[in-house]
Amino acid sequence: MDRNLTPEEFLAKILEPAKQTDHICWKCKHLKPVLKDSAYPPADLIGYCKKIHWPFYWCVSEYDVVKKCYAYEARG
Ligand code: SF4
C-alpha cells in the first residue's frame, strides 16, 4: 500500500466507479460516483454532484455529458 496517498487518492484507488464517460465531473471533487456492482441507483447515473443543488444531491446522468461547469473544483 502506498502510504503517501491522500485520503481522497486512497478512496479513488479502492472505490471503482461503475461508468466511464467524458464528464468533467470525474476530475471534480464534488462528484460522488456510483460504484461498480452497485444495484440501487438508476442505471443511467454516473454519480451525484454534491455542489450544484447543495444541500441536495444532483443526479449526473451519463446522457447529459458535462464538459464545462461553473462550480468545478479539481480533486485535491
Ligand atoms: S460541480 Fe460541476 S463539475 Fe463538479 S461534480 Fe458538480 S456538475 Fe460536475
Description:
With 76 residues, the protein is of the alpha+beta class. It has one domain (7-61). The protein contains one helix and three strands. A three-stranded antiparallel sheet has the order 1-2-3, with no helix packed on it. A hairpin with an 8-residue loop joins strand 2 (45-49) and strand 3 (58-61). The longest helix has 8 residues, at 7-14. The model has no long low-confidence stretch (mean pLDDT 91). Bound molecules: iron/sulfur cluster. Iron/sulfur cluster binds next to loops.
Q: Which residues sit in consecutive blocks of at least 5 with pLDDT less than 50?
A: none
Number of strands: 3
- Global shape: globular
Assembly status: single chain
Q: Give average pLDDT, whole number.
A: 91
Strand pairing plus helix content: what structural class?
alpha+beta
Radius of gyration: 13 Å
**Can you tell me the number of structural domains?**
1
What proportion of the residues form beta strands (DSSP E)?
15-25%
What about the largest sheet?
3 strands, antiparallel
Give the neighbour order of strands across the main sheet. 1-2-3
Q: What ligands can be seen in this structure?
A: iron/sulfur cluster
**DSSP helix count?**
1
Order of helices and strands: HEEE
Distance between the termini: 19 Å
Q: Work out the helicity level.
A: 10-25%
